[in-house]
Description:
alpha+beta; two-stranded antiparallel ribbon; 3 helices; 13% strand; flat
Amino acid sequence: MDSRTPPDGTAAGAGAPAKRFSLGSIPTRLWVALILLILAVIFVAQNRDAVQIQVLVVSLSAPLWATLGGAVLVGLVIGLLLRPSARKQRKAAQR
């Protein structure tokens, strides 16, 4: 027997089952992310028209998708700024 052959006589790796790919093996959060990405691409493709935006005295023209995306980002930042800090959460958990 060759020193590279395992004691059972099989070639290295020959007895190991091959990993099979299945759609069920993809995590749910990856499916949700993929669906959201597809929806975002469709949204951008359908909303390329320019719109007038007025903020106080400034007026500018921008694509609708960029305007709505900017509003979502502003909302996200506000939400992140207003959520309790980790220190406050730990303090509340200790009580």
